[in-house]
Amino acid sequence: MKPTSLENKLSRIANWLILIILVLVPFHAFLTTWAGANFNHLDLFRIWKELLMVPLAIYSICLLGRHKALAAQMAKSWLVRCIVIYIVFFLGFGLLAFSRHSVNANALLYSWITNLRLVGWFLIVWIVSSRSRLLIKHWLKVVLYPAGLVVGFGLLQRFVLPAYFLQHFGYGSQTIPAVETVDQKLAFRRIQSTLRGANPLGAYLIVVVAAALGAVRRHRGLWLLLAASAVVLLFTYSRSAWLGVIVAVALLIWLYLPRSLRKAALLVAAVAVLVCAGGVWQLRHNDSVQNTFFHSDENSQAYVSSNAARSSAMTEGLRDVWHQPFGRGPGTAGPASFRNFAAPRIAENYYIQLAQEVGIFGLALFVAINILLAWQLWQRRRDPLAVVLLASLAGITLVNMLSHAWADDTLAVLWWGLAGVAMSLPASKNAILKKSNK
What we know:
The chain has helices spanning 5-24, 28-39, 42-46, 48-66, 68-76, 78-99, 105-129, 134-159, 198-215, 222-234, 239-256, 259-282, 287-294, 306-323, 350-379, 384-400, 409-422; strands at residues 180-182, 185-190. The protein is built from 17 helices and two strands. The two termini are 30 Å apart. By secondary structure, the protein is an all-alpha fold.
């Protein structure tokens, strides 16, 4: 069906609105904390992007109604089917939990937003970007231009600005801590930049590093961003993010390398890992090494180490799933559970959190969505965006095994939005990686 002038105008507006959301979301925590501190209504400011998603969702539904071929394509997709089942199940189980008084309205709504935002936003961007080339044309700028500011501010935070600088923008005990440290030692201050913490910043940098590395052959100036990102990543002291970046970069290099060089690369990587592990072991009694890699030392100021706390949280989470394999309901675990009337349940693992909330079946649906999406990205690996997303998904998946990374606004909106853009690319079962980043 030939698009009308009105449809073309609406398409441009929708694509630009998505682009604006993706550009602004790395600064979401900083801007909303400042706005909430000055004008109150912090929660209202925090959902600015979700409010913008509402008209985009309506427009997406209208597009499906007008373009039957697009609607038929999505209806045949097992990825879309799993997402629809997941959304319906999550909403229905939430209402059931609310009727049973397992969760209050505040925690339930927060859980719906943080958990369903991923897949809902993905579908919206997929539908909208399928009618325009704007987002696929500018995706690299959308990622790297804001990243330059985030990384730059992170460097200032580490080397120039005073420790409690963010207090001037509303950071504090009622919002986001102005300072994060390792083992409560100010000498090991963690960079958080414009995100809501050091761990979310580290997870976000997985996408940034993968995107910059994927484009560095065409844009040599990105080596500077990569170097600066590495410094910021180091001083987040986020061990899960370090591992996530290693996994993402290794997979990215593996995908781009000719097959004849893959065995040699694997050998070099194995030797590098052994050397690094050996170095850490030899220096295990050094205070800096202990605080950097183990987040504790002999003079620890914390009553319980972060390692012990995380292990205990995961164990408790798994015990909950064992005793309640069908889940207790959305909002009863994870960050949303802080808003519930019962004691919060933080498993330090996003997948355990989902099982606590919506049971083994809900977790299985989400895992299936991830696997199907990874397969779709693999089929589109001719394009650099799909390769970057596939590599970063591997790293972020690891991070989510050690934290609630998908609950972070920036990472969720940015990665799943870019994944929606990637789905507008043509798929090929026999795709071969390009030699250039065009």
